[in-house]
Amino acid sequence: MPAFRAPRHLAISSLSIALLAALASAPIAAQDAPAKQDKKDEKVTELARVQVTGSNIKRTDTETASPLQVVTAKDIESMGARTLLQVLDNLPAARPAQVDSKSLYTGSDGASQANLRGLGAQGTLVLLNGRRLSYYGAPAGFQTQFVNIDAIPAAAIERMEVLTDGASAVYGTDAVAGVINVITKPSFKGLEVSGSTDMSSRIRSYGERQASITGGFGDLGEDRYNVYASVNLYKRDAIPLSDWYDKKPAQFYINNPSYIKNFRFDTGSAPGVLNPGSYFAFDPVTGKKVQQAAPGCNNIIAEAAGPRCVWQTWLNNEIDGGAESKRATAYINAHFLLGESSEAFAEATYTTIDLRANGGTPRAFGTTTGNPSSWFARNTGYVANQFFYPYLGPNNVYNKASPEMKAMMGGVVGLQYLLQDAGDHYFGQRNTDKSYRVLAGMRGYLGDWSWETAFASAGSHSTTYQTINVNLDGFAKAFGPFTVDPGTGRVIIADNPAYKFGEISEANAALLRAAYPTFDIQSWTRLHTLDGKIEGPLATLPAGEVRAAFGFNLNRESFFTPGNSDAANGKITQQGGSWFDGKRTTYALFAEAVAPITAKLEVDAALRLDKYPHFSANLAPKLGVKYQALPELVLRGTYSEGFRAPSLAEAGSGGIFAQIGGYRDETRCNQTNAIANLLRTSQRAGDVDLGNSLLNSDCGRTVARMTQPNPDLQPEKAKIATLGFVFEPAKWLSVSADWWFVYRRNEIAAPDYSKPEEIIAQTRFPITDADRANLAALAAMCADPGSGVACPAVLPTYTVGNVSSVIGQYKNKGRTLVDGFDVDARSRLDLGEWGRLNIGVAATIARRSMYNFDDGDGWAYGNAIGYYNNPRVRATFNTDWNYKQFDTSFYINFVGKTKWAYDQIDAQDNNAQSCTASYEAVAPGQCDGAPSWWTANLGVSWHASEKLTVGVTAKNLFNRLPFFDPNDWMTFSGYTNNFGRSYSLMLNYKF
User: Fold this and answer.
1) Interatomic CA distance for residues 491 and 485, integer angstroms
2) 758/808 Cα distance (integer angstroms)
3) Gyration radius of the chain's alpha carbons
4) For the segment 482-528, what is each residue's pLDDT rounded down to a tens digit?
5) Residue 729 buriedness (CB in 10 A; 0-12 / 13-18 / 19+)
6) pTM as predicted
């Protein structure tokens, strides 16, 4: 009867070596006791059995029917990766996903996601040592629950196994696109410390620093126990706008000619210097806007509407460039041998994340002349809340406008004024997250069968702090009480408000901190799991042993976001107190068997039954076949069915009460752009400036949005298949190729608010003062021969106001089909006295990506491969040369070119002829689409001694800069970066 003993090094099959060459020096978790010589073969066989991701059965050959990619700790070091997200960037099957540094105002600030096959974070299952993790406390967009891969203990990682095949039959929900299983060191003895620092040659403020210490004691073979702990510290510096604003791709500045000009470096008042502001009014006859600088202004510029007092835009904003992030992760692993045939084990993980971003320029008091801010709130019903910055009344002590201006609107004037009192570092956002997982279990043998059971408790508590929005009560204390002009409906501030314009003081600062308070949004997730399984020989066939596994899972899941009480009551502008409250218990039974039908043919069958509340039990099957066609050639294929259960955010109680950004209203977009483009042809500077500011301003607005959960949602279903081979013509070369296919239907989706049929209710604002002023400016230009513009007989105009609010609900709708090929080639060359050379090429070649978010037949959007964000080819090339005390690695990442349009329908407007993407001009020479992108990393490690290793890596070795991408809010694609060539230094010391 096998017993647990110290890990040993294994000799495995040549095909296994092809897949796991880098693991040759790593200990395998299976353990055995010394045995008598006559039981040697039995012990060796038992030792050789390992469990791989995607199967519950231990086997002697890690080459299964399912494709599996293995990334070792050494591979991660060679990549120069500092986070798991950076590791995934080097895997062609992974697609860009949320990055914590770019996650501000997404609802899940401070977290990163995994995304295989482009099917989203909810289609990719992330495991730690084969077991589930709790979702991140704050779901993306307040709706998408996912595992935050930044919370996984990086310093303790031994390897990552990436299963690029469906695995719902083994793991249940979410494993549609594949599984990422992060595996920590099974044991560790001694003490090891390491540190690294990264810096950019282009962005001076960029920096990443990481330090870790790992220590352990006890030997399983001698002491019958091993305990080790690892602590990992990570810090990324914030990147202020001052180090970023002039380093965007060149085309951005062509499309936004006033961008740098609007910082007012040469014309505006300096930070901290009092700026008295500007007044304005509207001509009651023409609607034209007239403005003038307030008395005492020393920074006046002339515009078409008149002189204006301007200030410099402060450049300490860290929202665009990147937030500061601090992470600390502690991990403890313990194993204790009990008797001769059982073992107790335990794990504990704790991660704390603190992400901060300075909001930059202090808020400005700018009387609202266009659309007000609008938002839904939980307790205020279906009528959107609105907020206007008010006007100054005729008797206001700070209304020092000229008598001529006052006469225009009965003494009422608008005001533009910089509220500097709260300080330049007061506004911004912070997110904290504390996550944990504790696990305890036992494993052992009963005869020839092994068993294992464990209980785990995991959770996350996320808090988002925002200091950016107005608190209506606090604003009223500073500037109220308010009155309403009965003739025009304009809101007027108090004639002698508590806030004193024209001075910077601590009394003013206290009022502003109440008017713009820091409010919090907290959320909690919890996951308790109990699992158990047995595994062993079931029967004996002529070709060998049939092995089987049987088990169960019991999960208790909860998600709670109470929301902010002020926001829930509509007191916080643009924040509606989104809330969720849900709990559920789920049950699962599973079985799996591996049978050698012949000496060459092996069949793997798995079945899992999951029961979720409110819908029928889901049965997920999987069938895998492996055929040894030749000694050098293995054929393999799988078919499985997957599912994703509705998350508690999608089907529970609550909803999203806030806003949606980037809402596109074609009517207003086209009308505003027609006005803007005509103004831009003028020879009068003021007209051109106005046209530039109006262009595309109504094409992506922020509107009030309410998205309601749907308790009647059903699970998404999927059919998944793979078919391929592994070919090893020589011991130094292996090649694998697999076709993969995923068809997902009944997809759970939030409303597509661009489609009227998905909107339950919609409202619009009326035509505003600003709209009428734009039309007046256009009429004045056309009436002036000096403008040089031949205006049409009928001028562009506005027929409707902007959309103010939309309401929708989650639904089961639509389907997606994706397929393609994964190709991997690896060679291992012994160079004799010149060391060893490993060369690898991996590529994902996409064939189809088709989707239809409607309920109709067919594929409404056609095949999206080759369109934006769906390149046909993603590939990596790497080579490692090990020579004496030096390891040299060279990595190339490649992403193929695409069209600018998202699909065939979008291509009707954004194509090579229009030379646009998202209706914006792209760089000349790139009209036919986003160009291919590649970067190269070069790393060298010097093993100075058995204890000390020093490494240097040059990332983006050839200093390639990103191209302009109007589809991405960063102005360059997410798979590129703006850091130019960067460098990292790594030190590792083993005591």
Assistant:
1) 6
2) 7
3) 31
4) 999 877 889 999 999 999 999 999 999 999 999 999 989 888 999 99
5) exposed
6) 0.86
